[in-house]
Design goal:
Length: 355
């Protein structure tokens, strides 16, 4: 992980601005490490409090030990603000930076350098933790040219999936943000649920208005659906002209309580993806690492395209992309088979070719 920017004691930033940068960097590192959301919110919330005050007041309160009088500032966040205002790198930030793995220099560094965007992420419109604009700005800071916003579809109620009406409102929001953030682009997308019968959890009319569609299975995972039925389910979804990328195909979880792979005929599923020129996602989430390496190798040998995506639910998780790049590089996936090495125009032209 890179060192936090703007925290050098010699920086020309005001003490208050150094505090905001430190709080936000801590939140990013906590997100990257998959720490509980309440911890992240504490630091992002404190950054919001500091941002809303006059810098002189923040600095005076820091010197006087009166930061905890502010609603939204606790003991740990107050200490970070005090140390940043004083001109030093906060001890807690330094600890997190020292503990964070340096994932940018692995075997996939060249692939990561070739990537121009991320095709799978979530905002607070569904089960993500941050607004669309914050996710987009974080992606831009990482050097991306675009980010595909793929919040969940309505069937996944536990993740506050977007109804048709809410998705239409998000489309309008993205149009406005793209005017502000050009030349960076937020591409309109969705992670649409693959229903048990292989149909999609959103109307074709609405899917036709999106730039990129990721389709994923979120139910009867881990062997709760027989392999034959799961295969037919995924095949039918990939045959749908509005699907572009097959998300986290086995549904496995490899950390915590874990979840076994969902059985399916990978040769048949990947064969349909190849026939219809759809991409297989290499999901970068540390607890997924999906597909397993043997299936990435199979899809590679069969000639499939790939998309290396973070499935990020918070800005700090957009930094996971090198994890997927390393896995792809270790298995010999060439950059020209990865759809998000293309420009936004190239990606959307490829996706529109499925319609």
């Amino acid at each position: 992980m890179a060192d936090g920017d703007g925290l050098d004691p010699a920086s020309e930033l005001t003490g208050a601005h150094r505090a905001i940068a430190a709080l936000e960097r801590i939140a990013e590192l906590l997100e990257f490490a998959l720490e509980p959301g309440y911890r992240v919110k504490a630091f992002r919330g404190a950054a919001g409090v500091v941002r809303g005050l006059d810098p002189a007041e923040v600095e005076a309160r820091a010197r006087q030990g009166r930061l905890r009088e502010l609603s939204g500032v606790g003991e740990k966040t107050a200490k970070v603000i005090e140390e940043a205002v004083a001109g030093s790198v906060p001890a807690y930030l330094k600890k997190l930076e020292d503990e964070a793995p340096d994932i940018g220099k692995g075997p996939g560094a060249d692939i990561r350098a070739a990537l121009k965007g991320d095709c799978h992420c979530h905002s607070d419109w569904s089960d993500g933790g941050s607004p669309v604009d914050e996710m987009a700005r974080a992606a831009r800071e990482l050097g991306h040219e675009y980010l595909v916003m793929t919040d969940h579809s309505p069937r996944l109620t536990v993740a506050r999936g977007l109804t048709a009406e809410r998705l239409e409102r998000q489309i309008e929001l993205i149009d406005g943000l793209n005017e502000e953030m050009a030349p960076f682009r937020i591409l309109k997308g969705i992670e649409v649920d693959i229903n048990e019968d292989g149909t999609l959890d959103q109307s074709d009319e609405l899917l036709s208005r999106l730039d990129v569609v990721v389709a994923s299975v979120h139910s009867k995972l881990g062997g709760r659906m027989p392999a034959g039925l799961m295969t037919r389910r995924m095949v039918k979804a990939l045959q749908n002209p509005f699907v572009d990328i097959l998300g986290h195909c086995t549904g496995r979880k490899v950390t915590g309580k874990g979840r076994p792979e969902s059985p399916f005929d990978a040769e048949k599923v990947f064969g349909v993806a190849l026939e219809h020129d759809k991409a297989i996602e290499v999901n970068c989430r540390p607890e997924r690492r999906d597909p397993p390496k043997r299936l990435i190798s199979l899809a590679l040998d069969m000639g499939c395209r790939f998309s290396i995506d973070t499935d990020a639910h918070a800005p700090g998780q957009l930094g996971w992309q090198p994890l997927g790049c390393d896995r792809a590089a270790e298995l010999g996936v060439p950059a020209d088979r990865i759809v998000n090495t293309w420009s936004a125009a190239g990606l959307t032209e490829w996706a529109s070719g499925h319609r």
